[in-house]
């Protein structure tokens, strides 16, 4: 899961994705022990596995999460961790409660490292399903925001957008540059949802953008800004 970090604004034209440490959707994993078909999921084993990472408060926090990621061979910034958090219905980025762990891992039938590693391809496939991806994208907003805030701070929003759209949306690097130089310091839920719709429906040359459509002002301003740059 991406870590919230403050970044300095930049006017550089060469932004791309290099500001974000985002790992591949298809990163190869360390070899793991094969799971026997006779192995049966064990709730007791799953709970014991949880306590390998949980603190005294019975929550897997940042330190435990780092060890968990190391053990399963996935970097915290890998999008697979976001998909896993979605499957666990985790409420807060960087934390798994005991209830979230047991419910989610039971649904996945995972009670050990090897079983979870065997589910990585399944988790990646969720990103290729239009409906599942939309649900993951929407989930990411509440997952990543500070719970005492109704909006995402703009740095976190940029990190999450890079994770979710950076490799698939042709206009992402341009949109990132727009956010860098804009007045926006937060992104609300309506803006967040509409960015996905915009990325799916508006052509890279913006030729089919409807100025009279119900887009949020943020996207109207982005289109205007980009058209000025192209002239």
From TrEMBL:
Key words of the record: Cytoplasm, Cytoskeleton, Nucleus, Phosphoprotein
Domain of life: Eukaryota
BP GO terms, sorted: protein neddylation
UniProt keyword Nucleus, yes or no: yes
Location within or outside the cell: Cytoplasm, Cytoskeleton, Spindle; Nucleus
GO MF entries: cullin family protein binding; ubiquitin conjugating enzyme binding; ubiquitin-like protein binding
Domain DCUN1: 41-227
This protein's GO CC annotations: nucleus; spindle; ubiquitin ligase complex
KW Metal-binding (keyword) present: no
Entry-linked Pfam families: Cullin_binding
InterPro entries, per database record: DCN-prot, DCN1-like_PONY, PONY_dom
The protein's role, per its UniProt record: Contributes to the neddylation of all cullins by transferring NEDD8 from N-terminally acetylated NEDD8-conjugating E2s enzyme to different cullin C-terminal domain-RBX complexes which is necessary for the activation of cullin-RING E3 ubiquitin ligases (CRLs). May play a role in DNA damage response and may participate in cell proliferation and anchorage-independent cell growth.
PANTHER family: DCN1-LIKE PROTEIN 5, RP42 RELATED
Subunit-level organization: Part of a complex that contains DCUN1D5, CUL1 and RBX1; this interaction is bridged by CUL1. Interacts (via the DCUN1 domain) with the unneddylated cullins: interacts with CUL1, CUL2, CUL3, CUL4A, CUL4B and CUL5; these interactions promote the cullin neddylation and the identity of the cullin dictates the affinity of the interaction. Interacts (via DCUN1 domain) with UBE2M (N-terminally acetylated form) and probably with UBE2F (N-terminally acetylated form).
Name of protein: DCN1-like protein
Organism expressing this protein natively: Microcaecilia unicolor
């Amino acid at each position: 899961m991406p870590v919230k970090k403050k970044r300095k604004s930049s006017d550089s034209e060469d932004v791309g994705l290099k500001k974000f440490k985002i790992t591949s959707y298809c990163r190869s994993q360390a070899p793991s022990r094969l799971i026997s078909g006779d192995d049966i999921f064990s709730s007791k084993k799953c709970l014991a596995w949880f306590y390998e990472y949980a603190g005294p408060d019975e929550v897997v926090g940042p330190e435990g999460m780092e060890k968990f990621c190391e053990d399963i061979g996935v970097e915290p910034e890998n999008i697979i961790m976001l998909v896993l958090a979605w499957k666990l219905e985790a409420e807060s980025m960087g934390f798994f409660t005991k209830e979230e762990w047991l419910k989610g891992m039971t649904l996945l039938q995972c009670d050990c490292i090897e079983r979870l590693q065997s589910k990585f391809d399944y988790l990646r496939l969720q990103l290729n399903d239009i409906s599942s991806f939309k649900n993951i994208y929407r989930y990411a907003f509440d997952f990543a925001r500070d719970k005492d805030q109704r909006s995402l701070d703009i740095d976190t929003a940029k990190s999450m957008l890079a994770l979710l759209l950076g490799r698939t949306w042709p206009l992402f690097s341009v949109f990132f540059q727009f956010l860098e130089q804009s007045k926006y310091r937060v992104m609300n839920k309506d803006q967040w949802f509409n960015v996905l719709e915009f990325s799916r429906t508006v052509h890279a040359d913006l030729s089919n953008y409807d100025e009279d459509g119900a887009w949020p002002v943020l996207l109207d301003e982005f289109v205007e800004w980009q058209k000025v740059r192209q002239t």
